[in-house]
User: Fold this.
Amino acid sequence: VTTTVLRGGRVLCPASGHDGVADLVLQGGLVEGIERPGGPVPEGAELIDVDGCWVLPGGVDLCAYVRAPGREEEETLEATLAGALRGGFTTVLAMPGTEPPTDGADDVRERLAAARAAGGAELLVAGCLTQGRAGRELAEIGEMTRAGAVAFTDAPDPVADAELLRRAMEYARGFERPVLAVGADPSLSGRGVAAEGAVATRLGLSGIPEVAEVVFVARHLELARLTGARVHLGALSSARSVELLRRARHEGLPVSAEVHPFHLLLDERAHTARPYDTALHLRPPLRRAEDREALLTALHEGLLLLASGHAPVGPEGKEVEFGASESGAVSLPTTLPLVVGLLAPLALAHAASAGPAALLGLSDRGRLTEGARADVVVLDPARPLAVDVALDAGARNTPFLGQICPSSVRLTLVAGDVRFRA
Amino acid sequence: MTTGALAAGTLKAPHLLGIDGMSREDLVLVLETALRFKEVNERAVKKVPALRGLTVVNLFFEASTRTRLSFELAAKRLSADVVNFTGSSSSVVKGETLLDTARVMNAYGPDLVVVRHAQAGAAQMLTGAMDAAILNAGDGEHEHPTQALLDAFTLLERMGRSPQEGLTGKRIAIVGDIAHSRVARSNLLALPLLGAEVIAAGPATMLPAGLEQYGVQVTADVDKALEGCDAVMMLRIQKERLKGPRIPSDREYARLFGLTKERAARLRDDALVLHPGPMNRGVEIAPEVADSGRSVILEQAKNGLAVRMAALYLLALGRREGGPS
Assistant:
């Protein structure tokens, strides 16, 4: 049995509320306990000095558009899962929009087996809500659940048929699996590529109105009320969506939501500064400064969880005209290093790890209490990191290319095993 | 005519991508230079050696006969060597990307590149892939700067104003599908910069969000917009918009938002009517109005030539005088 002691870091555990300098003892792939700093070390233990660093439960990412299988030219599975570890995510939830889509038990088993062979962070799988993500018939949600799918969604596309969506939500509730509501009303967002408003108008880009997201959010909240399904809203971008979520939570609805780092760090003014830069083509689009403020406030309040929204896109989708480009940005390697400083460390541990783990029903992670899986990330809040370096050999489409993250990941451990070391 | 007699300065930017970001000084420089070229166009021999030895490439990815012809003729009157490239900018037709085309064209070493493309930002994209000065001849719904310049030129000329004097005190209505119009976007920037009071009008479904940023008045009531106007600029309505959710029918559009004979009769006696062309007669503009004495539509075409000569000339001059190459 191997023992590792992470010595002298600021240990942050949202489950127990622990926030203080301590030694974290890991044994046999599990958390043994949080000990007084500098105490005796068990014989044969590996001692790693993490003085000045934050020690958090490993990140659990709720939204990664993993390109394998089908689009490995954008990013291979190995590269995605290695990038996750570099960014401090030990668990990654893969969206089902692969080619072929993950819409049956065999697909789920194949994805999980491929990921185990690939190494890196642990991959979890979301299954399709509807067959082939086509929005016409229910997918085999029950069989996929038995095969290991932990959530259901047609992300990044919405289920347009309200009756089908209602039934899908009821059905998923029966298996105690959450439904991830990702997208916007397609008839309102149309072929838009940027947030509708003064900036898009000036640049002549087709707009996606805020109401496309708000109507989508309202529809899911009301269906959650009706069906009792556990609904998690994919990336929010608008202040009005946040308001609806806040009210629904106040009313006790079983709903949650996430935000992606782009919408916390950027707003539509980025398009004015970098006109037609396709790295800024994101979904949802970058909105007004007020929206960004509302998202930051909601994150502080604990109303929003943090997810990467990782979506690698190669040159074919990005080195083209803005209106013809594909949305998305790589994000797993940089999400945590970029957002450090935006919220209190314990709140970060909740938003990026404990909250997502609870949503997915993963009781073995998202905490640093005794018996939890020893998935740990050690962040150095004071050592900056160039985004270019963080990306390593993976895909490079990010609006932050050339910039510096204020912090960096120093170590990532999966089940007690050091899988990444800066 | 020598270049020395013409040059009162050069443009600040190495390219002409839009009116956005241009100073009034630069706008005036183009218009003043165009005045000189208009004289050239009225001579028996309409050719000057200003761009002799330089190559102009017209990259037209979107069907356009008139604008391409205007640019081609402008370059030829300046004695440049001109080649035309016509391609498709449809994303459905998978082929060479815009950047690939640009890189190939760049290998031929053109001095000036005129580009028309269906996607906003296409002209700017070329600046990163080519060494030539780029002139935007219309990029999606973004801008069409030479159209705004020729509109301003026509207005000034007919109003007896010099470019320096500008359009202060003049009230100009831009009417129609503002949302999808690059001509409108360029004019919404150019006309206020020259001091005009501008009013944007059209069905509410065609007035995009954020028009207030241009410092113009906005209304869905065309009759109100036309009250006391010194000029009205009618925008072309795209055929495909007539079927979309934004307007019920071409009939209703013509009656409520078009420049009908009746509406034109209520204009001030000296009010001018402009249209960037090609016109949909009987939809946004009644044939009688288009052909009336207040219509300056043919003058716009004529002035377009002089304005485009001026733009090409000034961009070439900027390169010669040590601007970025």
